[in-house]
Amino acid sequence: MASAIVTIKVMPASPETNMDELEIKVKQAIINFAGEGETRTEVVPVAFGLKSLNVTFVMAEAKGSPDPLAEEIDSYEEVNSAEISDVRRAVG
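Predicted structure:
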């Protein structure tokens, strides 16, 4: 079965949001959705002190769309928005 490489862009509710705690919470949601696997996180400055959390992870294509995961993360109190910014099929 093929794998997909997915990137979720998470925008916090405010510049004061603790990005380390948010990262832990998002990674746990990914583990619950896709299982243990490779993940990579990056905190990217956006504007006026606000930063986004970009999380890239590998999941089995058989799981289907990662949209339910983004919807779950989007529902967190400390999150303003969460969107799937990239999905690619892993080759090899």
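Summary: The helical segments are 19-34, 67-74.
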